[in-house]
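Try this one yourself first.
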């Protein structure tokens, strides 16, 4: 990850989740075939749970680029101060080329239907 990219990612983390701590930005791989990045709050002596995780990517550079892309879009929405629309969620979390949008949309519809069916 380039230092400019890392600075952008860190800045967007602070916009999305707050300026009250540092963030642990990490990458994981399964035998150097697929890569994914994740973000956790760094409390100094412990880490929080994952705040976001990228989808699987075919290189470490692609995983960092995907995290950068996701957080940039998410931070723009947070700055706007309005709730994230379904289309925005699909854009942020649907994968670098939108390859997961269709499946994610179906999952979101199921959850929305389930939530709507609950008695008040």
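Now uncover the answer:
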């Amino acid at each position: 990850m380039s230092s400019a990219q890392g600075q952008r990612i860190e800045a967007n983390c602070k916009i999305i989740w707050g300026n009250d701590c540092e963030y642990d930005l990490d990458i994981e791989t399964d035998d150097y075939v697929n890569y994914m990045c994740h973000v956790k709050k760094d409390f100094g002596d412990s880490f929080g749970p994952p705040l976001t995780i990228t989808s699987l990517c075919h290189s470490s550079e692609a995983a960092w680029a995907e995290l950068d892309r996701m957080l940039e879009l998410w931070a723009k929405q947070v700055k706007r101060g309005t709730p994230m629309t379904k289309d925005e969620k699909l854009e942020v979390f649907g994968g670098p080329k939108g390859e997961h949008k269709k499946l994610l949309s179906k999952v979101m519809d199921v959850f929305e239907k389930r939530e709507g069916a609950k008695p008040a």
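Discussion: The CA atoms of residues 73 and 107 lie 21 Å apart. Residues 60-80 form the longest helix (21 residues).
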